[in-house]
Amino acid sequence: MKSALRSVPPLTSRPRTVIAAGPFLAVIVAFAGIYTAVSSRLPDPLATHFGFGGRADGFTSVHSFLTGSLALFLLFGAVVGLLLQLRPEAPEVPWVIAGGYATASATGYAVCVTLLSNADVADVSAVRVPQWELFLSLVVALCAGALGRLLAGAAPAAPRRPRGAVSRLDLPAAATAGWSRTISSPPLAVLGGLLLAAGLLVGLLADWIAAAGLLFGAAVSLPLASLRVTVDRRGLTLAPALLSARCRFRRIPLDRIEEA
C-alpha cells in the first residue's frame, strides 16, 4: 500500500507573488471601506500632517489625499512585485515579502488613522493624534512583517559543497592567512530604500509618529543589505559593511571553525 502522505512542494514564484500582493490589496480595500463609511463626515481640507506632539500642522484636500494614498499603495506593491519577478529564487525573497507586509500595514494604518481622526470635526486645526499611535503602528508593522515571513515559506536552499571539496592553503608553520568578502543583497537594499522612502513620505505628508514603523524597518534592513565576512586569527566575523567594523553581528572563535 502506498503512503498517502506527500512532502509539501516549495512555493514557486507565482504563489509568492500572490502572497506578496495580498497586504496591498487588503489595505486598499480597508482604506476604501473606511472612506466610504466616513466620507459624509469629513471636512475639506483634511488634517494630514501632525507634529511630534500630535497637533495638526499640515492640511490636504480630500481628493489629493485619496489620490496620493492610492498611488503609494500601488507604487510600493509594484516595487515588491518587480523584485520578486527579477530574482524569484533569491534567498532574500521571503524577507522582501515580509518587508512588503510591514510597509503595506504601516502605510495603511497611517492613512486610515488620518481619515478616522478627521471624522466629525468642526475645526481641522483641532485634530489630534495621540502618542500611543506610534507604538501601535510599530506593533502593527512588526506583526504584519512576521505574518508575511511566515506565509512566504522557506528560502530556496543554496547549493552546498561536499566536505573536503575546498582546497587548503599550503602555508609555512609560522605564517597566517586571512580572508574577507563583502556579500550584498540588492533585493534587501531595495527593500530598505523602499521602507525609508515610505517612512519619509508618510512623515512629510501625514504623520511622523505613524512613519516610525517604516523608518525602523529601514534602519534594520539597510545595514543587513551588505555584510562583510572576515576570517582571520580571531575567527569568523560577520559585520555590516555600511557601519563601523566595531559593529559586528557575530564572531565565531577560530577553534570552532573546521572548514571555510
Automatic annotation (TrEMBL):
The chain crosses the membrane at residues 21-42, 62-84, 96-116, 136-158, 188-206, 212-231. Keywords: Membrane, Transmembrane, Transmembrane helix. It comes from the Bacteria. This is DUF1648 domain-containing protein. It comes from Streptomyces auratus AGR0001.
